[in-house]
Amino acid sequence: MICMMSVRDELRESLRVQSAMVTTPEVPTSVYRDMFGNMCRRMVAQPGTFSLRNDCTIELSGLPDPVMPWLRPTPLADLPDEVLMYLVGSRYCETDRLSQIAWDMFGHIAPGYAQVQAICDYVHNHIYFNYMNARVTRTAYEAWQEGTGVCRDFAHLAITLCRCMNIPTRYVNGYIPDIGVPITGPMDFCAWMQVYLDGSWHTFDPRNNVPRIGRVEVAYGRDAADVPLIHSFGPHILQKFTVWADEVV
What we know:
Blueprint: E1 2-3, E2 15-18, E3 22-24, E4 29-33, E5 39-43, E6 51-53, E7 56-58, H1 95-106, H2 113-126, E8 128-129, H3 140-146, E9 148-149, H4 151-164, E10 169-175, E11 190-197, E12 200-204, E13 216-221, E14 230-231
Parallel strand pairs: 8-9
Antiparallel strand pairs: 1-5, 1-14, 2-7, 3-6, 4-5, 10-11, 10-13, 11-12
Helix pairs in contact: 1-4, 2-4, 3-4
């Protein structure tokens, strides 16, 4: 098994309490970084019931996601080499199937922050969030057709539409506490996106579509295929899954 549950290295200086990952029964684990710099933990799970647990306390600014309407696109010729992969199609993001649709809907909007926000607004209103309609094989095009899904479907569709407009966009997953918003249900692992504007990456969240406080990045990649919470090379049945991301006062 390979799992991604630890925060990205960029946040490690902000950790105040870090507990090691605990497996039950205890098995040897090793850590490596994948091609995106995500921390991956590798182990062999024995047959039978097997559990994973990880916890930490992290100090963040306490401020919501910044809103910066002045951001402009970085000219394509000036994009860093490592950013170019986030312009093209990937496993769940079929830019070829949505390109004309994207240009028809968003081509008239000034490139930059306004165009990305318009895409997020559209996706937020187009997809109906429903856990019961989750499907691990759903692509961005299928999410657009079906109009239903979970946070990863919101992210995949918005990512694809942004890439169609020549805006580099990557898939991000991690934790979002319910700070400053009504608590509507149990917490879950969350997916959102980052776009490359004015020479750096910026957070957008088509699922929630409002600035959130306490966002913690765990992993990013081209789409969900690059950053599974658990990647098992064999059959398994998930019996219990609990996420907590609570404010420490």
